[in-house]
Amino acid sequence: MHEMSVAQNIIDIVLQHLPEENSQPVQVVTVKIGKMAGIVPDSLEFGFQVIASETPHLENAQLRMEFTPLIIHCPLCGKDFEINDPYFICPDCNNTNVEIKSGTELQVTEIEIDDSPQEES
Ligand SMILES: [Zn+2]
Fold it and tell me: What are 22-75's pLDDT values in tens digits?
């Protein structure tokens, strides 16, 4: 399953970004997923939960997914267009030599750590 390795990547990134002395649980990991990244959200969530449950500090982490639209840029018109179908054609001038601006990315954008003070006993 492709999403399993994606989930592993996400968790690797989270671990790299945790402060070295961190001992607080990670609560929420936010990822930005392009509409065209080819991710099945349910599968990614499942993979994330499976791996997180075995990873220190991430046992109870939730995955929050934000989806970014597919945006192309036409160099001829100099405009950006949000498109709903994966046809990479400028809707204005039918230029097919367009650039993809967003919609294929997969990025960890936020890591929320429970930083409420621990109770001293
Ligand atoms: Zn154009």
Answer: 778 999 999 999 988 889 999 999 999 999 999 999 999 999 999 999 999 999
Residues 6+ apart with CB under 8 A from 116: none
- H helices, E strands: number in the chain: 2, 6
* Predicted structure pTM score: 0.81
Question: Which residue segments constitute the domains of the chain, with CATH numbers given?
Answer: 2-68+103-113 (3.30.2320.50)
Report how far residue 82's alpha carbon sits from residue 35's, in angstroms, rounded to the nearest whole number. 11
- In terms of C-beta density within 10 A (0-12 exposed, 13-18 middle, 19 or more buried), how is residue 70 classed? buried
Q: How many angstroms does the Cα of residue 108 sit away from the middle of ligand 1?
A: 32
Whole-number Å distance, alpha carbon 81 to ligand 1 midpoint, is: 9
Distance (angstroms) between ligand 1 centre and the Cα of 74 equals: 5
**Dihedral in degrees, nearest 10, Cα atoms 4, 83, 98, 10:** -20
pLDDT tens for 80-109 read 999 988 789 999 999 999 999 999 999 999
